[in-house]
Design brief:
The structure is a single chain. The protein has 446 residues and is of the alpha/beta class. Helix content is 50%, strand content 7%. A six-stranded mixed sheet has the order 1-5-6-4-2-3, sandwiched between helices. Helix 2 links the parallel strand 2 and strand 3. Helix 10 packs antiparallel against helix 11 and helix 14 runs antiparallel to helix 15. The longest helix has 19 residues.
């Protein structure tokens, strides 16, 4: 399994009105940057959907791969689970891993802990990004069963030993993360890949509240994700179960674990077309720009035809809008507005709307609409913070700082800008990346 390429979360803001990206000179950006910020609150995206719906999600997540291949038997670790970090990892990885393991113990009731022993069940290893991309070109990071390090993976990657569908019980796995990645990307990789090392092997584009969705909208494990993992490790479940056996017990398991979810619902969903998945994946790859735009348009057309609404149709428009930025500004804005309209239909899609807000802010800022920019980002900033997305939060604050400057409030602008930089250091990594993002936003001003 792998966390998808970060197309949608990397440099989100190609200029709407091309402007030279001059090195920023304001305040803290001209000298040393402020200290890196981090999230200390315990907010978790809550479980809001009904149990019949989530029971179907559990089965589709646990008994299929992303490719659509069926998994005959569920597998999991049996007994206490140990996690080791290979030498060379950055300090932020250790801190974020400890926080994640604490959540897994508390929220998913999984007996998991960090160790320095070489025979740990799960190894986390940082690998040079170029080497990782040569092996799996469209993955930001990934997890593999039955190997302990990168060399073992390279030796075994074309064998059945690393086939998840062949497992009856999980005993060891390795998570590979790019060594040069920003702290947030490393954390996001830890959350998704460790969750998949432990439990579900599929991603579902229909999920509005989960990291098990290749749209990469959610950065950290949600309440839904923890519930799915807790169900995976419930005593009623065991390695080797068939889909039918799991189907027979998942309803009472969820009733016990999530009594608030015992309400109406059928758990029946229109499946996601493999043709749509292929189109959206093509839109997110490193193909030519024209090919990617055509693929996004196909995804939009199919989503309209199927009348999906929600995450899949919204993401189709989001991808199309992103690929029209710098090519056709009116088409890009129309796509973002349509995505926002779709996402506005459910309170569970607030973080999706926050991603759209940063795109729309690029248009209002470049049009000289300071008040409109501030209105957009002010509604999205607390959402980005609650969802622990420092990169998104930093971008939103950078927009607000520029808009305040345009209104002549330079003191407030500088305070917001400096505050954004602490989050940017976590979200974007190197000082050069932070300054480049700040210059990118500043360059949008008319």
């Amino acid at each position: 399994m792998n966390r998808a390429s970060t197309f949608m979360m990397a440099a989100l803001l190609a200029s709407c009105s091309p402007a030279p990206a001059a090195p920023p000179t304001r305040g803290a950006t001209a000298s040393a940057l402020p200290a890196m910020r981090g999230f200390t609150d315990n907010y978790v995206v809550p479980v809001t959907r009904n149990n019949p719906e989530m029971g179907q999600d559990f089965l589709d997540l646990s008994f299929r791969l992303e490719s659509g291949r069926a998994i005959a038997a569920m597998s999991r670790f049996e007994g206490p689970i140990s996690v080791r970090v290979a030498p060379g990892a950055p300090a932020t990885l250790i801190a974020d891993l400890e926080s994640l393991l604490g959540r897994l113990r508390k929220e998913a009731a999984i007996p998991i802990s960090r160790t320095d022993q070489a025979d740990a069940n799960i190894i986390v290893q940082t690998v040079p990004q170029k080497a990782l991309q040569r092996a799996v070109p469209n993955a930001a990071c990934f997890v593999v069963p039955n190997v302990r390090n990168w060399d073992e993976y390279l030796a075994m990657r074309k064998t059945s030993a690393v086939d998840w569908t062949a497992l009856q019980t999980r005993t060891k796995a390795a998570i590979f993360i790019p060594a040069e990645a920003a702290p947030q990307e490393i954390r996001d990789c830890l959350h998704e890949e460790l969750a998949q090392a432990l439990g579900p092997l599929n991603d579902l584009y229909r999920l509005p509240d989960s990291v098990f969705n290749d749209d990469n909208i959610h950065a950290v494990l949600t309440g839904f994700d923890m519930l799915i993992l807790r169900a995976t490790y419930a005593p009623e479940m065991h390695s080797g179960m068939s889909r039918q056996q799991a189907s027979d017990v998942i309803a009472p398991v969820l009733a016990r674990l999530n009594p608030a979810g015992q309400r109406g619902g059928t758990g029946v969903f229109p499946d996601t077309s493999r043709e749509w998945i292929s189109a959206i994946e093509a839109a997110l790859t490193n193909a030519s720009a024209g090919t990617r735009r055509q693929s996004a348009e196909r995804a939009v057309n199919m989503a309209q035809q199927f009348r999906w609404g929600g995450t899949r149709e919204g993401f189709s428009y989001y991808a199309m809008g992103r690929l029209q930025v710098g090519v056709n500004a009116s088409a890009a804005l129309a796509a973002f507005n349509r995505a926002d309209q779709i996402y506005s239909t459910s309170p569970s899609l607030q973080i999706h709307r926050a991603h759209i807000a940063v795109q729309k802010a690029a248009f209002t800022l470049s049009a000289g609409d300071a008040a409109g920019t501030i209105s957009l980002v002010d509604s999205a900033i607390p959402i980005a913070q609650r969802h622990h997305n420092a990169a998104l939060l930093a971008f939103l604050m950078m927009f607000k700082a520029e808009a305040l400057d345009m209104q002549g409030d330079s003191v407030a602008a500088e305070a917001v800008r400096v505050d954004s930089l602490g989050w940017a250091r976590y979200g974007f990594g190197s000082d050069a990346n932070v300054r480049a993002r700040l210059a990118e936003v500043s360059g949008l001003r008319p």
